[in-house]
Specification:
The complex is a heterodimer of chains A (147) and B (369). Chain A has 147 residues and is of the alpha+beta class. In chain A, 45% of the residues lie in helices and 29% in strands. The longest helix of chain A is centred in the C-terminal third of the chain and has 27 residues. The longest helix of chain B has 31 residues. Chain B contains twelve helices and seven strands. The chains are: A alpha+beta (147), B alpha+beta (369). Chains A and B meet through helix 1, strand 1, strand 2, strand 3 and helix 4 of A and strand 1, strand 2, strand 3, strand 4 and helix 7 of B.
Chain lengths: 147, 369
């Protein structure tokens, strides 16, 4: 679903989709009036994650700089805990995503189709950006070589 | 030495009001919205994020608005805000080979697997004004997509070239040690590559550009080639302790530059190309290129090259590349230095008086004769 090298389990995949969604998209998926009872274990909070990279792309690690990150942890009455960690400072989105993460563990059938739709839309946007870039593909040497 | 002063509260508060009015400009002109800055001043936002060392386009847009477009002031604001945030931890190391590429060019290899992709570049524009941008335009520009997307994964050029063994290998030291963080441990010398790269990543674009230029003009020992520049989105992952597995936080837009340089070789290393690396937040090619050239020139000591030029001297480069520190030290000279200056004034008056007295004393006996 994403290009994250290790995003492989279903839960990692839906968390990746939720991380890329907007607060409004998550409200559409799970309207505020239709939310299950939950307890907030870690209220939505904005902090940072230090982004590490590698020298030359493959070498020693170094600290590139930080990125704002917002997290939230909730617990449903079933006892299931939902987590959200995503770039940015949107606390409303973080809470929605944490509730959805918990619901997806309890009853995946309810929201899985909506998440799949969102994932598909995100993939379509990536695809379109890639196709627009592909239109600028160039082969300088064909132009020079000629016949 | 700076001695604090008191007073001036009313004047300072009035200066805030005047600053706010000046920042707003002519009120009959619509006020800028942050989304407009974020969307339409993207490279200014990228610079503030990179050198402010905090990836957040909305906050960088706010910083630019508050600073009236002054990049260094905006960077200062972002750095100051960063210190108020808790740090959850460190990400998994980025894997730029998984970048969803929007631009990727190589000046060294013509036929790359995946191809050369110009993307959104000013490189081949004529640098002539487009006066239509000054008009209220109705039409929204739209790029035409190709039928097929680019390859989902494009190998980085050095990874391809490296297979021949002609290129310096970049691999982690044994145990893949955690990097030093210069925001927590102050610089010490000799500095490791991790410290150098972090410092350069947040270093001033203009300063690094000047240094890179000096290397190219002969104040350095290497001749750089762009192995690859790539721009696009890379997923960033973080492993929260309580979950124990990596969570994909979303995408960062990044610019990466792999610079390839000549190297004659040494007793221990056969002749091969050496490398310099540049990586920055957002679309920031000039910065990434300058960073990669300076990264390479700072390898001089490790490669056994003679260290004679400014761009090769790590203390000089690393201590002077931070524009928040540099601006702070230069600009603090504007603040009242009355006590300081008074002391200097007294000293000069005394020396002059002593000298005058001495001269008078020296001429007196002559006059007496």
């Amino acid at each position: 679903m994403t290009t994250g090298a290790t995003s492989t389990t279903p839960r990692q995949r839906w968390m990746a989709i939720l991380a890329r969604a907007s607060a409004a998209e998550l409200d559409d998926m799970l309207p505020r009036g239709a939310r299950p009872a939950f307890t907030t274990l870690k209220p939505a909070e904005t902090g940072t994650v230090m982004v590490q990279a590698r020298a030359g792309g493959t070498g020693d690690r170094f600290n590139l700089g930080e990125a704002t990150t917002t997290r939230c942890v909730v617990r449903l009455e079933s006892g299931t805990m939902g987590f959200s960690y995503a770039l940015g400072t949107d606390r409303a989105k973080a809470e929605s995503a944490a509730i959805i993460d918990a619901l997806m563990q309890d009853a995946p059938d309810q929201l899985a189709p909506a998440i799949a739709r969102l994932g598909k839309a995100q993939q379509a946007a990536r695809d379109l950006a890639s196709r627009k870039a592909a239109a600028t593909k160039v082969d300088f040497f064909t132009l020079v070589r000629g016949e | 030495m700076y001695v604090a002063v008191k007073g001036g509260e009313a004047a300072i508060l009035a200066s805030y009001d005047l600053l706010a009015e000046t920042r707003r400009g002519n009120p009959s002109v619509p006020e800028l919205r942050l989304a407009q800055i974020r969307e339409q001043m993207g490279t200014a936002v990228a610079r503030v994020m990179s050198e402010g060392s905090l990836y957040d386009a909305d906050l960088a847009a706010l910083a630019l608005k508050q600073a009236q477009g002054d990049a260094v002031e905006a960077i200062f604001l972002l750095r100051a805000f960063r210190t108020t945030l808790a740090r959850f931890g460190s990400s998994e190391p980025l894997d730029t080979s998984t970048m969803r590429v929007r631009r990727r060019v190589s000046a060294t290899y013509k036929d790359l697997p995946g191809g050369q992709v110009l993307g959104p570049t000013y490189d081949y524009t004529h640098r002539l004004f487009d006066f239509t941008l000054g008009e209220e335009s109705a039409a929204t520009p739209e790029a035409r997509p190709a039928d097929a997307p680019l390859d989902a994964v494009m190998a980085r050029v050095p990874d391809i070239l490296g297979q021949e063994g002609l290129l310096e290998v970049e691999q982690p030291a044994a145990g893949d040690p955690a990097p030093t963080d210069i925001t927590r441990d102050s610089l010490s010398f000799p500095a490791g590559r991790d410290v150098r790269l972090q410092t350069l990543a947040r270093g001033d674009e203009g300063f690094l550009l000047g240094l890179a230029y000096s290397v190219q003009r002969g104040f350095g020992h290497n001749h750089p080639f762009v192995g690859e520049i790539r721009l696009g989105e890379v997923a960033v992952e973080f492993t929260p302790e309580e979950l124990g597995f990596p969570v994909d936080l979303g995408d960062l837009t990044l610019t990466e530059c792999q610079m390839v340089n000549q190297f004659a070789g040494s007793k221990h290393v056969p002749p091969q190309f050496t490398r310099g690396y540049g990586l920055s937040f957002g679309h920031a090619e000039r910065k990434a290129m300058a960073m990669s050239i300076v990264d390479r020139s700072l390898k001089a000591r490790a490669l056994g090259e003679e260290v004679v030029y400014p761009a090769q001297q790590e203390e000089f480069v690393l201590y002077h590349s931070d524009n928040v520190e540099a601006a702070g030290f230069v600009e603090h000279l504007k603040l009242p230095h009355y006590v300081d200056f008074q002391a200097e004034l007294e000293l000069i008056r005394r020396i002059r008086a002593e000298r005058a007295a001495h001269a008078q004393g020296a001429t007196m006996p002559e006059a007496a004769e």
